[in-house]
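Recall from the previous chapter that SMILES is a line notation for molecules. Here it describes zinc ion.
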Amino acid sequence: MLELEYVLNKSANRLSGLHPVVRQATVKLIERSYAAGVPIMITQGLRTIEEQNELYAQGRTNPGQIVTNARGGYSYHNFGVAIDFCLLMPDGKNVSWDMTRDGNGNGKADWMEVVEIAKSLGFEWGGDWKSFKDYPHFEMTFGLSLADYRAGKKPSQAAQNAILARLTEQEDEEVQEQIKALLRRVEALEKQLEPTDPPVWAKSTVDKLTKKTKNGRPILSDPKGDTSFYRTLVVLDRLGAFD
Ligand SMILES: [Zn+2]
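With both inputs in hand, we obtain:
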């Protein structure tokens, strides 16, 4: 299993230039996918308008295949609020766009597990688009259109807070889950400490002590205890303490 830090480092360069809230959500996406057993890599974050124009020219005025229908300023990437991802293979080097891969063997496609986590964090998925589907693509629009962004509008504080609340709300849930798991463990441990009937190996000692009296009373009147109680009795008995 790859280390989380290694997985985060793989994408670190791609996170610079992202809107701070989107960057935070992206880190969370990497962490939560990792926790689900699906290491991912961010392959694209901010793409400047010049870079977008260059990409748009590919397959049109420049050689190569057409890879985008968006000119500069017509992609959320140009405003640092979109990311593209792919699956990171267990060797930590190779990557995959295989949407059917089930690397964590839980019967669900890893790709869709990542999509589900991203949506819960407030991302919209390019695979949900009606016309041109962009499966590796997530964007966080904050309710602004591309025209808004081109006009220089910035995400409102309220829209940013709504996403931040989502991120911390889930953190609270994670902590709550951990506390619950801890309480279950404590409960199980307490059960082990609760008085039980004597185990087989302590039976003869307990029988002896309930029959034997001292000052008219049985040495052991209520033969209930935990494991260490019985162990002590047996050790003392073997040492001849009750003879
Ligand atoms: Zn994209």
